[in-house]
């Protein structure tokens, strides 16, 4: 039976409620010094604010080595009443030091599988997806290594694979590797940041493959992509791909949290949802937020 693997155990896909399909409660990147998401109190406040807007679930895409704080997630889920999904995986090479990458050589898929089945570190919290990353319009050797390990972990466990697309690019290269070379079923792949490159032709090609497409996070630099996002969602819905669409807030810095004056998780429901209702109608937006995440992150777990 299909299930979504949350930090409190497996749940039925239909029990997620309104879902933020791509976000971060804890995260730290060397590209964003001084803006780390480290505060447990701030994470709790952000989840509470999301819950007050009607939110029911958050999929945290923070992978290995970037401050996941997996041991803190179960208590946050219980205290706020929000389902949480944790991630294993590996981001781009620039986010890690050489010692970290050296320790993972030859055993990356093994680490992913262990975190999906046994738990992350000593926390006992099992990851519910593998998060990896592509590059800007291309795939370097690191990206191909991590995609290969993610595919191996999928075939061992059934886990869904979520992919950070750098500025929304490299879509077809990622699918060629994951679904072509490594034969991952497309419906087990979630492509992130499609909103950052509003190429409607590529979006449609990706949707035709059978994968899920995530539109996640207000822009910090390319503001034209924000007002074009409803157009992209409408184009995919009109083409019959409304069941492949996901929405997320992708909060990656402390300043971006709503409790610090930024948009944060609540913005997804407070502003993005009504804007999309205007574009594609209330019923489709309801399904994008409540039904599609269960299909994307629910799977027949093998281990």
TrEMBL record:
Keywords: Hydrolase, Metal-binding. SUPFAM superfamilies: Metallo-dependent hydrolases. This is Phosphotriesterase. The keyword Metal-binding applies. The keyword Metal-binding applies. It comes from Streptomyces levis. Belongs to the metallo-dependent hydrolases superfamily. Phosphotriesterase family. The modification N6-carboxylysine is found at residue 131.
